[in-house]
């Protein structure tokens, strides 16, 4: 396994991470097996989310004996202070840890969402507070649209340390913005590396991504 630095976070991450969506279709026993196999392959980065039903809980139990060997990232769709604050506490409980390495604002899109999230009583305020308290280590964001991606790294580059966006052989609309992330030392996290299961040659798909110097880490979903 190769390792790299996740942008401004300074975290040393495996270039391939564990995407936590498919674990919803398994059970706790299989979650343990997934974690052990990933560790054997040198993977040290887990991506999950509040919205992935049992994913946080399953991985929280599986990672408990190995917490110091993993970089845990999760995310929330909450946009205001109160809901994000509550989600952070829920994530900490589910993941059975007293700190989360990276907490991300998930899939932000509209002008209203941006205004709320980064406003006086927005989700970002809760993330900053949690960071000061040592409950989270770093703050990132995710998007599915190019306009939101562009806005995040240009208007809020001083607030986010990582950016997650779809990137694969057939979806490379973010190439220019990925280069901008590199220039600004914002870690780029590639989601949907096999286009939601629509690319048959998984090895080729991952090679394509990890050979792009502007992609920091790729997180294929694993089950």
Keyphrases for this structure?
single chain, 8 helices
Task: Tell me the helix content.
Answer: 25-40%
Query: What's the quaternary structure here?
Result: single chain
Shape: globular
Neighbour order of strands in the largest sheet:
3-4-5-6-7-8-9-10
Compute the number of strand runs.
Answer: 10
Give me the secondary-structure category: alpha/beta
β-strand percent reads 15-25%
Question: What is the average per-residue confidence, as pLDDT, rounded to a whole number?
Answer: 96
Largest sheet: 8 strands, parallel
Q: Terminal Cα separation, in Å?
A: 19 Å
Number of contiguous helices: 8
The radius of gyration over CA amounts to 16 Å
Order of helices and strands: EEEHEHEHEHHEHEHEHE
List unreliable stretches of 5+ residues. Answer: none
SSE topology sketch:
Elements: E1 3-5, E2 12-14, E3 18-19, H1 28-40, E4 45-47, H2 55-63, E5 71-76, H3 81-94, E6 100-105, H4 111-117, H5 123-132, E7 136-142, H6 146-155, E8 162-166, H7 175-183, E9 187-191, H8 202-210, E10 217-218
Parallel strand pairs: 3-4, 4-5, 5-6, 6-7, 7-8, 8-9, 9-10
Antiparallel strand pairs: 1-2
Helix pairs in contact: 1-2, 3-5
């Amino acid at each position: 396994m190769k390792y790299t630095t996740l942008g401004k976070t300074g975290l040393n991450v495996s270039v391939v991470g564990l995407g936590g969506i498919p674990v919803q279709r398994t059970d706790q026993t299989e979650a343990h097996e997934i974690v052990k196999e990933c560790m054997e392959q040198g993977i040290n980065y887990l991506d999950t989310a509040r919205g992935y039903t049992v994913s946080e809980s399953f991985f929280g139990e599986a990672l408990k004996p190995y917490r110091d060997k993993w970089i845990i990232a999760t995310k929330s769709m909450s946009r205001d202070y109160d809901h994000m604050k509550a989600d952070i506490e829920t994530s900490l409980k589910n993941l059975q840890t007293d700190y989360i390495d990276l907490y991300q604002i998930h899939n932000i899109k509209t002008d209203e969402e941006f205004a709320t999230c980064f406003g006086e009583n927005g989700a970002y305020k809760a993330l900053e507070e949690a960071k000061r308290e040592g409950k989270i280590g770093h703050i990132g964001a995710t998007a599915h649209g190019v306009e939101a991606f562009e806005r995040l790294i240009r208007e809020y580059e001083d607030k986010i340390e990582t950016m997650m966006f779809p990137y694969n052989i057939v979806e490379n609309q973010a190439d220019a913005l990925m280069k901008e992330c590199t220039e600004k030392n914002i870690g780029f996290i590639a989601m949907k590396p096999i286009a939601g299961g629509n690319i048959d040659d998984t090895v080729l798909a991952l090679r394509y991504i990890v050979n792009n110097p502007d992609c920091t880490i790729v997180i294929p979903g694993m089950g």
